[in-house]
Design goal:
Structural class: mainly alpha
Number of strands: 0
Distance between the termini: 28 Å
Order of helices and strands: HHHHHHHHHHHHHHHHHHHH
Radius of gyration: 22 Å
Strand content: under 5%
Helix content: over 70%
Largest sheet: none
Shape: globular
Amino acid sequence: MSPKSTGPKSLLRSILGVSSITLLSRVLGLLREMVRAALLGTSLYSDAFSLAFSLPNLFRRLTAEGAMSNAFIPVFCEADKKDSRARALDFARSFFWILALILTLLTLLFIWQADFLVAQVFASGFSGEALEATVFLTQVMFGYMILISLAAVAQGVLNSLGTFWVSALTPVLLNLAILGAALGMQGWFENPALPFAIGVMLGGCLQLAFQLPYLHRAGFRLFKAGLYDPKIKEVFRLILPTLFGVGIYQINILISNLIATTLGEGALSSLTFSNRLLELVLGVFVVSITTVILPRLSGHFIDEEPGKVVYSVRRTLSVISFVTFPVTALTLALAAPMVELLFLRGQFDQRSLDMTAGALVFHIAGLSFIAYNRVFLAVYQSARRIQITVWISLAVMLANLGGALWLSRSMGHLGIALASSASQGLNLLLLWVFSKRLKVTGLLDRAFGLSLARSLGASVLIYWTLVQLLPLVASWPLVLGFLALSLVAVGQYLVLMVLLKSSELKETWGLLRARGKRP
């Protein structure tokens, strides 16, 4: 059942709670990529791992942050609210086992046909040693899809019951497992990417196993008579379109990867490292927002309260703008120093730096679009109008494919990053236009417009300031110069928000003070 309180303080408190836990995971994720950059650089083994991991990782994004949970949560919330908690948990158990059976069969089929699928479909631009390494790593890691999909069901149950921290903590275990395997098994195998793949599988096991005791405590029983539940039909009716609608961002990444395999060594790895920096913000704050808001929106739609839906969405979009606009400005100004500070060591050389920093500039331009889209998709999912997003996603996917193919001819891998961001802008426009069919109107009121204007204006100003100051710190040590500029940007933004009387700043600061006073 969704939480009872729906005010801005309650919403932001839940978001900050999940974000504070998720921050640790994302920092470890960044450390994981730093280790990979040092050990593999942008070599063929790094490219092979990037593509091999992207296949099960596509399902991770769709399940842990998208399709399975978002198709499952509305049905679970309805059963919990209209029937009983025991009835909802029985339905969840049935769904868990049926999903496990289906995914096991799909995984075995994919591993069996990995040679053909990777060579002919997913990595048609690879050949020789790069292709062999990609096929092998795919076979090792594809079972991660089963583990993370089942972990996503557990996450959906716990989040719907108001427990967010458990699932937010599980990516920490994944990152620790990958780091431990990569560093502990370094030099053990001829393929230097194999320890990373082993770490992925160990991490998937930990992510699922960690949540099971908390599910049991909530009344969820894995082993109980009766497998099929009639409500499963309703979930699978939602899953198929949701896989497409929610996953457009990940589908675009997959398309980008396929095109990148034709652009030479390092193109795919540089796009992957760039995406990791982009997803640092998405994971720390934006995914936390959608994790918290989805059960709330489902409850509002079940109770037929469109006014509360509009209010929650409007406040969420304002908070997202407050965070993503300045992050975008700072990254655009400091892309090269940021990549140099994080990755320039070991096998990651100057060529790798230039390729990754260039991709980051174009990727970060789509940050706010991606964040807004996740909120709008949560609205469509809560209203059970996923079919609309299918047609929107099809148009966006085709636009991204055409744009990536066209732009990559003249811009190389940079064109792929630009096409991805542009397609997210198109996605947002279409989701906004068709949201009227959900009776979600009045989002763009005067207060919301002023909130966007404040965040955007202040962000443009800090970008200008950073560009002016960057030559002045060029002779400083890299760490010192980067930290100084970052502190200037953050300080300037906060001062501007105070002068502009930003309500988002006031609410967030008040909650941080309240959290700090707790014993």
